[in-house]
Structures are given as C-alpha cells and as structure tokens.
Specification:
- By secondary structure, the chain is mainly β.
- It folds into three domains: about 280 residues, Neuraminidase; about 80 residues, Thrombin, subunit H (Beta Barrel), CATH 2.40.10; about 160 residues, no CATH class.
- Helices cover about 5% and strands about 40% of the residues.
- It is built from four helices and 39 strands.
- Strands 2, 3, 4, 5 and 6 form a five-stranded antiparallel β-sheet that branches.
- Strand 15 and strand 16 form a beta hairpin.
- The longest helix is centred in the last third of the chain and has 10 residues.
- The radius of gyration is 25 Å and the shape is elongated.
- The mean pLDDT is about 95.
- Bound molecules: calcium ion (2 copies).
- One calcium ion (CA) binds next to loops.
Length: about 525
C-alpha cells in the first residue's frame, strides 16, 4: 500500500536504528530524504548532489547507519563521483544541533574505486552482525566482465568488501578477511570478503539469523540469490564470470563451472521471469504475517515480487506474491522489521502489508456509437467521462467492487488498450499468465497499467471463494473486439442472447472474483 510519495528516483530505504522511527530514502540524484510518521520532510537530511554523477546505474546509491549511530552519529554513503564515475565510500556525521540534518563538513572519504564503465557499480552498504561494514561492488561494467575483475584478487570490483570502520585510519581490515595479512606478491586486496559477483545491487542481513542474502544481477540468462551463513563465507567465490546462476557461461578465468571451490546460489530464475533482480529481505515484520521467515525479492524489469520458501528437504521455491507495472529499485526495513519498497518511476515508497486494501467501485460505461463497454475505478477518469471530456460515454448504471491496490494474495488487474483502427477498446485480466499471453500474442494491445484496481486471484474451476462474487466476461466476437464485464447473471444472459461469447473458467465461465 502507498506509504509516501514525492521522492525523486528512490534507490535505497534504510532506518537509523536510533528508535526515532524515521525512514531514510536515498535519491539517485544525490539527496537523502527523511520520512517521519509517513510524512516526507521538505529539507533533505543530506544533499550530496554536487558530488555525484547520476543516471543509469550511477548516482548516490548506498547508505548505512553505524550500529551505534544513536551515540556516535556516524553514517556512510556510496556514490559514483562527478569527476570520473569512480565509486566513493565516505563517512559523515549528523549535525550536532539538528537530528534531521547531516553535517556536510564532516565528510571523510574512506575508499575510492576506479570504475572502467558506467554500469555495474553495486551500491549497497550494510553493517553485518559482526559490526563490520559490508560494501557490494559490481564487476565494473560493460558485459561479460571483459577484464575478469570478479575473479581477480588484485581488484576490488565484482566483490563483497568488508572493513572495520571503528579502528584504523580511515579504516582497518578485519583479521578474519580472507586476504588479511597476506604475504603473496602482488598482494591481494585485503578489503575483499567474497568474490565472483557480477552486480550485487542489493544485499541484506536477516535480522533474526544474521545470514547474508545477496541478489546478484545476471547477464543475459539468469538472476540469482546467494546466501552466506552468519559468521561464515569469508573467501567465498560466487562464480561470476564462469557461472551465471546455475548456468555455465563458457567464459574462462576462474575455477571450473560447478567446481566445489564455488558457492552456488540457493535460487535462480530465468529471463522469462524478468531481467534484473532487486534483492530484498527475509521478512521479520508483523504487517504481513504470510511472509514471515521468507525472503522477499523482486525483478526490476518485470515488476514481479516473490517470497522464497525453504522446504524441510532444503529445496527453495518462489511464490509470486505481487505484480506491478513498475519494478522496485529497492526494499527497506523499518526498525520493527516491516518491509517497504521503492517505486522509482512513481517517486513513491510502498509498504508491504497483508491486510485487504479498501474497496473501490468499478463503474461501467457504454458508447452507443461504438457499441462498446468500458470500466474504470480511477476517479480522474470517471470525472472526465462524466463531464463528457471523453465524449460519447454514458454510465450504464452497473458497477462492482474491487480492491484499491494489490497486496500479497491479491492480483492487480492488467488493462490493455486496443487503439482505434484495431478496436478502440479495452481488455482486463486478473491472471498474470493471461496478461503475459495477451502481451505476447497480440502486439496491437498496449498495456496501459497494472494498477487500475485489484481482485482476488482468478478461479480455475469457475467457483469464487466465499465472500467473493463472480465477474463474467463477454466478448462481442467482432473485429472491433470489445468485452463487457459484469457481476449480474441477468446481464450475462442478455449479452449471450445478443450473440456475445462468455469467457472464463468453469461450466458457466467466470473470469475474475470480486469482493461483494
Ligand atoms: Ca561501473
Ligand atoms: Ca553466481
């Protein structure tokens, strides 16, 4: 459900762990915004815009508050710098007088990592349960890691770094890092914690177990989730560019594909499901009980959200819990472990909850000149139709209920538009599979939105669950293809008598189920 709006290209959401209840949202352009009690504060916490080159995969990308932020006021950011796109990790302090403002003069650069290409900069910063700062770095960019950075121990690219910001100047190397104190010549980079990553755009620690979950963005085939247990995994090699997910890429430059020296993902998915994983969190909040203990993640390209479950036998399966038009750029937890995600296209922060959203009325219109039916729940659209700004449409007097938005367990209704010449008509479906099929089979159909309204999942046997009523779909069977949707059995029978074709599931076809 909507939580806050008005942020510009949000790419990260974190809390300060200081019991203030605030959420901090990173804007790709360089500002950090504060949301307090659901309200976006007008003045940014920090404006680092002048330091940052942004756009594409560049910008202000990461933010982490020190575990003792409440007492020491320290936080850390990750950005691609204006001069050359290099990755910079810098430390800041909060203002001594204003808890809602950072002190820009406190900036101290900890690390600068040259970037050979604009893409694959990673971006996430997190403190682990060990108190060390973890820094996710992509392979530097281009495609297929042309210089094999991810397998190169002399390069920080394509790695998970781990540093100790409480000792040394400006930091120290944790003695348990795999190359700490190495006497090899040339010396591997001691900041490296794990290697073989392509672009770990998002990673997180399970607040209950301390396990590390990484969403590593794939090349052309597979998106993957990697996990290291709390306290383990130093020196792990996640396999890129030899492997992409569970696939062998055929590229050389590291241990053999499927070598026991590699740490394989716990789960991957193909590009039939998306093209860029946005790693999430193991859900530990109270607002979505159905998700507790499951890793919630999404795909930026397809807008699909899944909850990953582990069976007693140790196998993983992902359940599709949500489909939106805009893929999320980031997930974030509040201090209670409730989960949010960033819709960068809409400039919105959304909250993931189980509760059914409020009901809206879906109003039906008829255009006599076209002999077409149309329905909408959007207030702005209803206003235009009723004022005849979109001429020729009148209310039929029929309407049914829907949910205002989708939450886990409910499906957003995809709405396609068939332009004039090919129909001048709309088509709606509650089934993600049918929406995908329409997009693929009928190129003339333009996907307008996933977010007109939402309904319970479609039936497979024509029977709607208790408390829901069937929505019938009737097709005019003409070249100017048009459907009428109704919850009224008499209207359905009348349309069938007119020659319309009943579509859906079951002996008396049912297309969707609406709240009564
Ligand atoms: Ca890069
Ligand atoms: Ca891998």
């Amino acid at each position: 459900m909507p939580f806050a709006s008005g942020v510009s290209a949000p790419v990260e959401i974190v809390n300060a762990g200081d019991s203030s209840g605030r959420l901090f949202v990173v804007e790709q352009g360089g500002r950090i915004r504060i949301i307090r009690n659901g309200a976006l504060l007008a003045t940014p916490f920090l404006d680092a815009s002048s330091l940052v080159v942004s756009g594409g995969e560049q910008g202000l990308l990461g933010l982490a508050f020190h575990p003792q932020y409440r007492s020491n006021g320290r936080f850390f950011i990750n950005y691609t710098r204006a001069a050359d796109g290099a990755t910079v990790i810098a430390s800041y302090r909060v203002s001594a007088s204003n808890p809602d403002a950072a002190d820009p003069a406190s900036a101290q650069v900890l690390l600068v990592i040259a970037q050979p290409f604009a893409n694959h900069n990673g971006g996430t910063l997190r403190f682990g349960p060990d108190g060390y700062l973890y820094i996710g770095l992509g392979d530097g960019g281009s495609a297929n890691d042309p210089d094999n950075h991810a397998q190169d121990p002399l390069s920080l690219l394509g790695k998970m770094l781990r540093i100790d910001v409480d000792h040394g100047s400006p930091y120290a190397i944790p003695p348990s890092n795999p190359y700490a104190g190495s006497t090899l010549n040339p010396s591997p980079r001691s900041e490296i914690f794990a290697s073989g990553l392509r672009n770990p755009w998002k990673f997180s620690f399970d607040r209950a177990t301390g396990d590390l979950y990484i969403g590593d963005v794939g090349q052309d085939a597979r998106e993957e989730i990697d996990v290291l247990p709390r306290g383990g995994g130093a020196g792990a090699d996640f396999g890129w560019r030899v492997m992409e997910g569970f696939l062998c890429t055929g590229l050389a430059g590291g241990p053999a594909c499927n070598s026991p020296a590699l740490t394989l993902p716990i789960f991957d998915y193909g590009h039939d499901q998306g093209c860029s994983i946005t790693g999430g969190y193991v859900y530990r909040g109270s607002e979505a009980p159905s998700l507790v203990g499951r890793y919630v993640f999404a795909d930026y390209c397809s807008g699909r959200f899944w909850a990953l479950s582990r069976s007693a036998a140790g196998t993983y399966s992902a359940e599709l819990i949500l489909q939106r038009g805009n893929g999320p750029t980031s997930f974030g937890e509040d201090e209670q472990g409730n989960l949010y995600f960033a819709d960068a296209s809409a400039g919105a922060i959304m909250r993931i909850v189980d509760d059914a959203p409020p009901l809206v009325r879906v109003i039906e219109y008829y255009n006599a000149a076209l002999d077409h039916y149309f329905m909408t729940s959007a207030a702005a659209e209803i206003d235009l139709l009723d004022r005849q700004v979109l001429p020729g449409w009148t209310r039929t007097g029929y309407a049914f209920n829907a949910y205002a938005w989708a939450v886990p367990g409910y499906s957003p209704v995809c709405r396609f538009y068939l332009p004039p010449g090919t129909g001048d008509s709309h088509f709606y479906s509650v089934s993600p599979a049918e929406c995908a099929e329409v997009a693929q089979r009928y190129p003339a159909f333009v996907l307008e939105t996933w977010e007109t309204f939402a309904l319970a999942p479609g039936p497979v046997d024509g029977i709607c669950p208790i408390g829901l009523v069937p929505v019938y779909r009737l097709w005019n069977g003409r070249v100017d293809t048009n459907h009428r949707y109704t919850t009224d059995g008499a209207v359905r029978d009348m349309m069938v008598a007119r020659g319309f074709v009943a579509e859906g599931y079951g002996p008396v076809p049912v297309a969707m189920c609406a709240p009564s």
